[in-house]
């Protein structure tokens, strides 16, 4: 799995951080998404997929490898 984030689309809702905190974080100054890893471990894949679906701005893209 490979993850990319379209930062300009991010609306700082934080859903990704709540669902997959080991993969996503938010910047303190503006709440925008921070990608902690673009290749998460297999045990995080389901949470990453859920994060992408929950993102109100569709800013998270997931590519299965």
Descriptive overview:
- The chain is α+β, with helices and mostly antiparallel strands.
- The protein has a single domain, classed as Alpha-Beta Plaits (2-Layer Sandwich), CATH 3.30.70.
- The chain has 2 helices and 4 strands.
- It has helices at residues 15-19, 45-54, and strands at residues 2-5, 24-26, 33-35, 60-63.
- A two-stranded antiparallel sheet has the order 1-4. Strands 2-3 form a two-stranded antiparallel ribbon.
- Strand 2 (24-26) and strand 3 form a beta hairpin.
- The model has no long low-confidence stretch (mean pLDDT 96).
Keywords:
two-stranded antiparallel ribbon; 4 strands; Alpha-Beta Plaits; alpha+beta; 65 residues
Q: What's the arrangement of secondary structure elements?
A:
Layout (H helix, E strand, L loop, with lengths): L1 E4 L9 H5 L4 E3 L6 E3 L9 H10 L5 E4 L2
Antiparallel strand pairs: 1-4, 2-3
Name the assembly state.
single chain
Q: Helices and strands: which structural class? A: alpha+beta
Distance between the first and last residues' Cα: 5 Å
Poorly predicted runs = none
How many domains? 1
Describe the sheet with the most strands: 2 strands, antiparallel
Query: Could you say which overall geometry the principal axes of the C-alpha atoms support?
Result: globular
CATH topology: Alpha-Beta Plaits
**Roughly what percent helix?**
10-25%
Q: How much is the average pLDDT?
A: 96
> How large a portion of the residues is in β-strands, by DSSP E?
15-25%
User: What is the architecture at the second tier of CATH?
Assistant: 2-Layer Sandwich
SSE run = EHEEHE
Give the strand tally.
4
